[in-house]
Structure formats: C-alpha cells, structure tokens
Amino acid sequence: MKGAQLKAIRKALNLSASAWGRALGYSGSKSQIAVQVRRFERDDRRIPFWIARLALMYAQHGIPRDIAGSLQGFSLAMLRPAFRFSPVLAINAAALRLGSAR
Q1: Around 20, how many Cα atoms within 13 Å sit in the side-chain half-sphere?
Q2: DSSP assignment of 8-46, as one string?
Q3: How does 92-102 read in b/e, with b if 16+ C-beta sit within 10 Å?
Q4: Number of domains within the chain
Q5: Does residue 102 fall inside a structural domain?
Q6: Which residues, in sequence order, are CB contacts of 87 under 8 Å at separation 6+?
C-alpha cells in the first residue's frame, strides 16, 4: 500500500491524522501519532502489512463502534465508509492477500 492510498482512506473516513493513528492502534500524544501517520502518508516510512490490512478493512467495512467511540471527535459517519470499495483498493487487497504488501 502506498501513502496516498492510506491518506485517501483516512480522508474518506473524515479522520484527523491523530484519530486515524489511534484507530490503527498507535498510542502516545496526538502530535506523535500524527507525525507517524504523516510519515506513512508521505511514503517516508514503509507501511507495515498489518496497518495496510487494517486500513483496507476500515475502508470496506467502516470503523467498529468500540474503536470509533474512543476516538476524539467521534461521529456515527465514521462507522461506515464514505465511499464504495474502489477497484484500486480491491487490487491492493488482493495483492495483500497474496503477501506482496508493496
């Protein structure tokens, strides 16, 4: 998965970088989490396989209630993706299933 794809999913779910990082399992201060997310989105760091899989799951199914409820600025819109699962994401999901994360 490329950083632009990760950012597109975050934007579609209407999340800040720090909220997105928390949804992906990162902890720490808001600024530390946001910096980490931005590094992934700029392709400064390789996106780990598990983050790519989790992001694709959120893109297809939305964020589970128990996770979304703990995010600052939570809204019910986060529970469902703002777009349909695109062919580009489907191709990447297939590539991830085959084990080729990049």
Answers
A1: 26
A2: HHHHHTT--HHHHHHHTT--S-HHHHHHHHHHHHTTSSP
A3: bbeebeeeebe
A4: 1
A5: no
A6: none
pLDDT tens digits for range 26-62: 888 889 999 999 999 999 999 999 999 999 988 888 8
The pLDDT tens digits for 52-98 are 999 998 888 888 776 766 665 555 454 455 445 454 555 555 555 55
In the block, residue with structure tokens 């999913």: 9
pTM: 0.68
Task: Give the C-alpha separation, 24 to 51, whole Å.
Answer: 7
The answer as to whether 50 is a domain residue is yes
Cα distances (angstroms) measured from residue 10 to each of 38, 65, 100, 101: 11, 17, 22, 19
* 47 secondary structure, DSSP code: P
Expressed as residue numbers, the domain containing 47 is 3-97
